[in-house]
Design brief:
The chain is an all-alpha fold and about 80 residues long. The chain contains 3 helices and no strands. The longest helix has about 35 residues. The relative contact order is 0.20.
Length: about 80
């Protein structure tokens, strides 16, 4: 993927800043903490393991979006 393709061109500066500093929702973070603790203890059911995997995928997507927003902001700063 080229650097230009990584930009988020149709998002406002305030939107980019919000995305770049975004975090997992508190309820999801609490669930993640619980599942990770119980997983390290070997106490997750099959359904809970799937739920943990899903949360980790969501976090990966969030981190990619945050990185793209930060990259877009830095690219805009360089153009100014």
């Amino acid at each position: 993927m080229s650097n230009e393709a990584k930009l988020l061109p149709n998002v406002s500066v305030s939107g980019l800043k919000a995305l770049a500093s975004g975090m997992l929702a508190p309820q999801s973070q609490s669930l993640l903490d619980d599942l990770l603790t119980r997983n390290s203890d070997g106490k997750l059911s099959e359904q809970e393991t799937k739920e943990l995997d899903c949360l980790i995928e969501q976090i990966d997507e969030l981190n990619l979006l945050k990185a793209r927003a930060a990259f877009t902001l830095s690219h805009q700063d360089q153009k100014s």
